[in-house]
Design a protein that fits this description.
single chain, alpha/beta, six-stranded parallel β-sheet, globular
Length: 725
């Protein structure tokens, strides 16, 4: 946003703005009450010195090589309160480097080059020439070889939305902090939309809470002869019997994948099993702390009246409490330690900070926890026996499936921003749905570690499986580095044997294909596939897929699969090449419209899937009765938005060249890459206006953005699904 035009800025706002700018000026100008070029650059936070120098020269009206408060206020007043023509004059002067009163092609090229650098876009020199010429030829109406002010004004007026908002967004330090209007919103959790969107989860949590309460009260009443603290301990103990079993039931992935295909998916919140697993995990921690505290208080009271001290009660088997040789206290202390460690090591902070291994190995101590629980509590086995057998069966099936198909990584591509693209030979019996994920183990990287990744190829691709793996933690970094430098494997004396084995494996890397692409033959094991919320996609009528960064992987698979089904509907005229699409609704695909939104920080990241997206664009029919079936929207957040003075020329040139070449200069797609971040309100407004049926939004990416999008979905009444891997 920006400060509105002269009409809307009231007197007190003016005064506030003046005071703010004066304060900012004093903090930048320092002792001499003047701003020099270096101070100016720092204040503007400008990457590229060209713009800072141009703005500085124009602000410095008396040419003294420094800006006084007066000069600054004059210039800013013009930029904030000035008319469109005033703002345009300023912009024209920025572009007219030599001050000749007209802009020639070379000046324009210099400006555009700086625009590119400012937006962190790199293009080949020829492309820059094309951009310059596209903008120049369009603006230079009289073909005089120079652009006059009138011509620039006429050119800019073809972009009305830009004209209204022309600002220098880097001058944010000159905008007073917005004073938030305090609106009295009902908290999100009390809105109807929230309850509608989360009905299954909320109902489930209510049932869970009621059951816990019931177990707690019944256990307390059973042991009321032992005093209050004894009752509390027993109540928590009974809840722990249930929760320590239930926490495992929530991770029966195979059963859940199978249940997704049944009516159960409409009743139970299967998509939120990981969230519920975390909630139950925290509940276990709370119950154990209360349980332990209650027992300790109980032991303090007992030690006063019996012959044993508190330490003997807590750390020895002498008092004989417990059903297996008086071990209840000792096992209880051990359990408390294990459970605290498990919860600590599985916190988001540990998992996301690149230490996934800490989470992975500490979580395996569940085997000890269950063993100790059997010894600690006489009744636990009754709760555990059936789910425990199912869990064991799942593990055995998992090991059998993954070991049976000894698979091989047959091709590796190293992509920009440290993404490893693995191509795995697909076994015949491996059937999956788009959006599913697998656990992969590559003994050469780490013998015992299994990591979950989404399959990025479509089920219709019968010979291979694709995984795109972003380097985030130790394992993923090792994977990337391993393929980056296969020749110079250093041999250390201690690890000769393993090194030799690795080198033999790497010798199988037959043909080297340039630096970043090679064929190989590396053993791996795959456990899966496991279903995700995205399986719902074919049941929706209007799907909006939002991927942030590497969060595109599930959608790569889905988009290919959708287009494969779409292709079956597509009709071609035998006599000419004209194609159209029948709007048939088949049982396995109700989709009428797909919007795909991909948000990336930088230009390089688009290279991960650009060839796939190009192919999808080409697959679309020329003519469709109800508009395009698949619409793509690309956003690049490092690029400055159109209404920024430092980017407007570039964005106009990109628009013109995209129209002329029928493709975007940044990605090479037909879809034009938008600078900045999506305005979700506008995006969803447009979606709801299309009225193509029930809208389901599928998101994969950072949790922070998930919250924003989820809140918007609730506002518009769209159903929201989130992917985890």
């Amino acid at each position: 946003g920006n400060t509105a035009g002269p009409a809307t800025m009231s007197m007190d706002e003016d005064a506030r703005w003046l005071e703010w700018v004066t304060k900012q000026f004093e903090s930048i100008a320092g002792e001499d009450k003047e701003i020099d070029i270096d101070e100016f650059k720092t204040a503007l936070k400008v990457k590229e010195s060209f713009f800072a120098e141009r703005f500085f020269a124009l602000f410095d009206s008396d040419g003294s090589s420094s800006i006084s408060l007066d000069e600054l206020l004059k210039a800013l007043d013009l930029l904030i309160h000035g008319s469109e023509t005033d703002k345009l004059k300023f912009l024209f002067q920025v572009y007219d480097v030599d001050g000749s009163g007209s802009i020639d092609p070379d000046e324009l090229r210099t400006v555009l080059k700086s625009c590119l650098r400012e937006s962190a876009i790199s293009l080949p020199e020829e492309k820059l020439d094309d951009l310059t010429l596209a903008l120049f030829e369009s603006a230079d109406k009289d073909n005089s070889g120079a652009i006059t002010f009138e011509e620039l004004k006429a050119e800019l007026e073809t972009f009305p939305e830009v004209m209204e908002n022309l600002t220098i967004s880097a001058a944010n330090w000159l905008k007073p902090p917005e004073q938030e209007e305090k609106k009295h919103h009902a908290p999100r959790y009390l809105t109807r939309a929230y309850w509608h969107n989360n009905s299954r989860k909320l109902l489930f949590l209510c049932l869970y809470a009621c059951l816990s309460l019931l177990l707690f009260i019944s256990a307390m009443l059973q042991h009321r002869q032992g005093g209050l603290w004894y009752m509390v301990a027993k109540g928590c103990g009974q809840c722990l019997n249930f929760n320590c079993t239930f926490v495992m039931v929530l991770m029966l992935r195979r059963c859940f994948t199978w249940l997704r295909a049944t009516w159960v998916v409409r009743v139970l919140p299967l998509d939120q099993n990981i969230l519920l697993h975390q909630i139950v995990g925290y509940a276990i921690l709370c119950y154990t702390l209360v349980h332990t505290t209650a027992h300790v208080i109980n032991f303090v009271q007992l030690s006063e009246s019996s012959g044993f001290s508190l330490w003997e009660y807590l750390l020895t088997t002498r008092p004989g409490i417990g059903w297996v040789k008086g071990t209840a206290s000792v096992t209880g202390v051990l359990l408390q330690v294990f459970i605290c460690l498990m919860v600590l090591c599985s916190s988001t902070f540990v998992r996301r900070s690149g230490h996934f291994e800490v989470f992975y190995w500490s979580h395996l101590s569940y085997v000890w926890v269950w063993s100790l629980l059997m010894v600690h509590c006489a009744n636990f086995w009754k709760w555990f026996v059936v789910p425990g057998l199912v869990f064991l069966l799942e593990k055995i099936v998992g090991i059998a499936v993954s070991r049976m198909g000894g698979l091989y990584v047959v091709e590796v591509n190293l992509l920009p921003s440290k993404v490893t693209h693995l191509v795995i030979k697909r076994p015949q019996f491996f059937h999956f749905k788009p959006g599913d994920y697998v656990y992969i183990n590559i003994p050469m990287i780490a013998k015992y570690e299994w990591h979950p990744f989404t399959i990025s190829s479509a089920p219709e691709q019968s010979d291979s499986l694709w995984l795109h793996i972003r380097s985030m933690g130790q394992w993923t970094n090792r994977l990337y580095e391993n393929f980056r430098q296969p020749e110079n494997q250093t041999v250390s004396p201690k690890r000769l044997a393993t090194s030799l084995r690795n080198r033999r494996q790497l010798m199988k890397v037959s043909a080297k294909f340039g630096e970043n692409h090679r064929f190989c033959n590396i053993k791996c094991y795959v456990d899966g596939p496991y279903g995700t919320p995205t399986r719902q996609i074919f049941a929706s009528e209007h799907a909006v897929l939002i991927g942030a960064g590497i969060g595109i992987t599930p959608f790569a698979s889905i988009l290919q699969s959708i287009m494969e089904r779409y292709r079956r509907r597509k009709q071609n005229c035998p006599n000419c090449n004209y194609s159209w699409c029948e709007n048939i609704k088949d049982s396995d695909m109700k989709l009428r419209k797909v919007d795909f939104i991909w948000i990336n920080r930088d230009q390089k990241s688009f290279e991960w899937f650009v060839s796939l997206l190009t192919k999808l664009e080409m697959d679309q029919a020329d003519e469709e009765p109800e508009g395009r079936f698949l619409e793509m929207h690309m956003y690049m957040t490092s690029a400055l938005s159109k209404n920024d003075m430092k980017a407007i020329g570039l964005q106009m040139a990109l628009d013109l060249l995209a129209k002329k070449e029928k493709r975007d200069s940044i990605t090479g797609l037909r879809t034009r890459t938008q600078p900045g971040r999506p305005e979700w309100g506008k995006v969803f407004q447009k979606v709801s206006e299309e009225k193509k049926g029930k809208v389901h939004v599928f998101y994969c990416g950072s949790p922070a953005l998930a919250k924003v999008i989820k809140a918007q979905c609730e506002h518009f009444g769209f159903k929201f699904y989130k992917e985890n891997f």
